[in-house]
Amino acid sequence: MTEPGGAHRPIEKVADFASGIGEYIRQQRSSAKISLRQLSKLAGVSNPYLSQIERGVRKPSAEILQQIAKGLRISAEALYVQAGILDLPTGGPVGDAIRADTELTERQKQVLLDVYESFRRENAAGTASPAADAAKTTTISEESP
Q1: How far is residue 128 CA from its own chain's centroid?
Q2: Is residue 110 within 8 Å of residue 81, measured between CB atoms?
């Protein structure tokens, strides 16, 4: 409902948010082929509470989102972005290309984005250099049978 002047009431904004994150969680669970009961066990969240989140009746906390992400084996960041807790990461053209690929599932996209971002953070921190990478490769090769 809108108030005079067309402003939305705060309770409706919460309901819209809860509905959006709930639908996203349901889609992720469905694509992972996990039942509601299985996810509730994996995430350590009660079955009725998880059902209420998916239906948009309850608004999950960041901690609950983290537990659900762990159960779905996706990054908590993906859920935080959907929940509006974090802004959408700007991965540049590579991130945009991964997100636009219609042949990848959301889980596959998120895994690729996570790996890509971890490499970018590592390089930005200056921990990765050609010499260090060569040393790691040599060490790994020497350790392998």
Answers
A1: 26
A2: no
Cα–Cα nearest to 74, from 100, 107, 116: 107
With beta carbons less than 8 A apart as the criterion, state whether 110 and 74 touch: yes
The answer to whether 47 and 29 have CB atoms below 8 angstroms apart is no
d(CA 74, CA 106): 9
Q: For the chain, how many residues are written? A: 145
Give the global pTM.
Answer: 0.54
Question: Alpha helix locations (H) across 3-46?
Answer: 10-31, 36-43
**Collapsed DSSP state (helix, strand, coil) of residue 8:** strand
Query: Tens of pLDDT along 51-92?
Result: 999 999 998 998 999 999 999 988 888 888 888 888 766 667
Cα separation, 47 vs 68, in Å, equals: 12
